[in-house]
Design goal:
The structure holds two protein chains of two kinds.
Chain A: E1 2-3, E2 6-7, H1 26-59, H2 75-84, H3 96-112, H4 131-139, H5 142-152, H6 156-187, H7 192-198, H8 203-206, H9 208-221, H10 233-236, H11 246-271, H12 282-303, H13 309-337, H14 343-364
Antiparallel strand pairs in A: 1-2
Helix pairs in contact in A: 1-11, 1-12, 3-5, 3-11, 5-6, 6-7, 6-9, 6-13, 9-11, 9-13, 11-12, 13-14
Chain B: H1 2-23, H2 27-47, H3 51-74, H4 89-108, H5 124-132, H6 138-159
Classes of the chains: A mainly alpha, B mainly alpha.
Chain lengths: ~375, ~160
Amino acid sequence: MSILGRNVLPLTVHASVLAPDWPWGFWSHMIIFVVIVMAFVILMAMGFIWFERRVISRYQIRIGPNRIGPFGLLQPVADVIKILIKEDIVPLNVDKIIHLLAPAVAIIPAIMVFAVIPFSNGASLVDLNIGILYIVAISSISIVGQVMAGWGSNNKYALISAMRVIAQVVSYEIPLALSIIGVVLFAGTLSMNGIVQQQSIPFILLQPLGFIIYFLASLAEVNRTPFDLLEAEGEIVAGYNIEYSGFKFALFYLTEYTEAIAISTIITTLYLAGWKGPFLPPVLWFLIKVFAVFTLIIWVRATLPRLRIDQVMGFAWKFLLPLAFINLLITGVQVVAWPDLSQWVIVAVNIVLSAVLIVAFSRMFRTKGDKVEA
Amino acid sequence: MGQVIAFWVFAVAIIGAALGVVLLKNVFRAAVLLVACFFGVAGIFILLSADFLAAMQILIYIGAISILVILAIMLTREVAFGSPSNKFQIPAFIIAALFCTGVIWAILNTQWQISSVAPGATTTSGLGVKLFSKDGFILPVEILPTVLLATILGAIVLVKDRKK
């Protein structure tokens, strides 16, 4: 194979669940898994929207949607149909091209994350050997779509929201990536399936501090409560998508839930041993764990109030970032110095260390009453 | 065959986007095209089996640098009327044309070393060894961020409120 007269060696793509005994090898694998991934994303998003509304209702001592279908299960279907037949309103002075492209730029990377998620042993669209790095990279593109929406809407509230998105996401990306490195050090591989295969005990036990940092940072990354400053209704009306209606708004809404599902699946894969588990089939274990993590996210949303902007930024830079560095240092020392030590000793040491560090740092980290730091 | 098609798609996309970055009056659209340009470069990296570099290209150039450029643009007024041309238009064009000719001439007349070894299944560990082994490149890589840090500190000192 040659490009401009130079020899180029073929790419090595590791896709091996269905290929090579299926017809067309790679292509049949790709088409089937694209369908699986899209179906997974859309169905899980609709299911989780229903589930979140019902569970939040429980926390708030009301009933929630229960009229359409059994237990209100068809409510998201009705919502989708309603939103699809709405009028698509484009305000007069918006930047038309940017306004049109923004939802697509936001949703495509959010779905692309699922390409490397292993649903079962080796059952992913591609098992890239830079798996988790690919996820961190691709998911950082979504913010471009949100910023395009904020700018292209020609609306000052949307613009403020977009700037909040930038400040928040760029800050939280650092502790997020640093906490992932801890997992990678223990697993010795970046491949998502490889990380699952390395977990004889779930990494949440080996990396309790890393798990907490990753969980909080990823909540901020996908703008879930208590970090949903970009859509603080009391301050900036509705967020970067204020000028969107109909199908375009639906795409932004779907992006938010896709990202929430994505972090549930990533946490499942990195910290909860992915598809591994006794008795039940691997796919079922995977879904159960994703479901559990998503329930935890809803629980956080139902429990905690929204933070102030200076609290959010201070939390990233003064609390999560130093802890992430310390976690990385501890993990590095353990991997290099005690390679032969029993994992359970490391588990005990790390849980005690995490508890001490978190208590110590929460003593040191105080947001100052009502004063907003300049 | 597929790789050749992919190469040309990326190449045309990169050059088109780069021309847009330079020629468009609207600075925000130019910044968005800059993102597209960086994305195309990541695609070329993947074609060269440099998967780690591709991920880093997206993470650093799109996830951090472009976003900060866009943030700076958002803080600017009258973006839609953009950068009007001034009297340096023709001298700038001449210098750019000369530079471009020089670069193209240099590229065409260089004997590039082409390795016939198959690319490794993973490039990440190779890069890690190059960085952190005994005679690795860790020192120059550490010096560069020091320069960047000094620049950031300088910027902070420059814009600091003197009244306090």
